[in-house]
Structures are given as C-alpha cells and as structure tokens.
Amino acid sequence: MSKGNRTRAEPVLLIGGAGEVGRWAARFFRESNPDVPILIGGRDERRAGLAAAAVGGASSVVVDLPSSDLGLGELKVSAVATLFTDEMGGALRWAQQRRAGHISISPGISELGVEAAAFMHQPSAAPVVLGTEWLVGATSVPSLLFAREFAHLEEIRIEAVLDEQDVFGPAANADLERQIYAGATALMRSDGVWRWCSGDDTTSKVRAVDGTKMDANVFSPNDVLLLARNRRS
To answer: Of 21-25, 44-48, 173-177, which gets the smallest average pLDDT?
Structure first.
C-alpha cells in the first residue's frame, strides 16, 4: 500500500471491525501499517468505539448497510474491508462509487459473481480483491511456497479441525456454516479437469494429532482456485 499523502489523509474502513475477526484484522493491520488511519465501522456505536479505542490511530463510525451511502454521507476512504457476510453487497457498491479498493473475506466460490460483476461494470474505478481463502490465505500461501520445492505434485490436501475451543464470533460461525453446509456441491480439480462434486464425493475423513479419525465435509473456498492455478503437472 502506498504511503503517499492520499493514504495518510484517507483512512481504511473496516466494516465489521468490532467483531472477533475484525479486532484481529485491525490489530495486524496496525502493526504492518503504523501510519495509516483506521475506521472501525459497525452497527453498534458503542462496540465500534470500544474496538477503535484498542487500536492506535483508529476511530469509529456507525454503518447502516441498507442505506445507499451506508449512512456515511460523503466520507472518503482509501480502501474498504468487509469482514462478515454482506448479503446486499452494499459495501462493495459504496466502495466502487468512492473509487476505493474493496476486499471481502466472506463470499464462497459460487458467490464470486457479485464481486466480479461490480468490477466488470467499473473496471477503472478501483481494485476488487477476492479474499475468501481459508483464514485469508494462512494455509494456501505457505502451501504455494512449499510447492516450489517440487517438480511435480500429485495432490494438495488441506485439512482443518474445529472445536469449541476455537475462537469465532457469531458472524464467523454463521459464515462458516453457510459455506460448508448451505452449498450442496464442492469445486475440485482432478487430473486437470474442473468438476462440481456432490453427495458421497463431498464426504471425507481427517486424522487429528492424536490419531483419531473424524468425519469431515469437503468445501471449496478460494484456495481451490489459487492452488490449482499454480499446480505443476
């Protein structure tokens, strides 16, 4: 991200920044961008204010998603991050109107059309980043780095085990359930061929660190597209 005058003057807006994922995102963003102003946006003024107070150089703002201007009037920002499921796509439209870059960490592969279409209609407005990798790339990016050591890869398999000790806010829980259970199919690439799998093809087994085998569901976040594109054969 540029450190020029525009970035310093116009903050990055984190919509959903008061949630569990949002607070961590704000913290990491502040550590890597100490001079960039941050706006914590949320429906609850008090929660947004408390979250902003915990981040240096941050302030808060109330966001009204059903409103055409999100209730923000002529507020100017340099970028917008939507950290929960925005079913109306209002944050994306607002960012495009402001010519501000936008990233969402929620849409699944079958839902990317909204973001792609927004960019197609205004390709010169601002970047639209498709950011729904598992844990925003925490597993797929290292996998790509490890893959460079091999001339040929037969399979890339990423497994995750979640339990009650994992820290997720209500929005993150709902989003995960939507992606895993709401979709009846999962996108896979096998022998160079893309296919949507359903039924028994979407069930699997994972082995925990103690050797216990557990039933699992196959689902396809953006990692499938990212890893397959870089697949060597």
So the answer is: 173-177
What percent of the chain stands above pLDDT 90? 30
**Residue by residue, what is the 3-state secondary structure of the chain?**
CCCCHHHHHCCEEEECCCCHHHHHHHHHHHHHCCCCCEEEEECCHHHHHHHHHCCCCEEEEECCCCCCCCCCCCCCCCEEEECCCCCCCHHHHHHHHCCCEEEECCCCHHHCHHHHHHHHHCCCCCCEEECCCHHHHCCHHHHHHHHCCCCCCCCCCCCCCCCCCCCCCHHHHHHHHHHHHHCCEEEEEECCEEEEEEHHHHEEEEECCCCCEEEEECCCCCHHHHHHHCCCC
Q: Percentage of residues in the chain with pLDDT exceeding 70?
A: 89
pLDDT for 102 beyond 60: yes
CATH class held by domain 5-132: alpha beta
Residue 62: C-alpha distances to residues 19, 46, 73, 90, 226 (Å): 14, 9, 11, 14, 34
Domain extents in the chain: 5-132, 136-229
State residue 67 phi and psi, 5-degree precision: -75, 145
Confidence of residue 165 (pLDDT cuts 50, 70, 90): confident
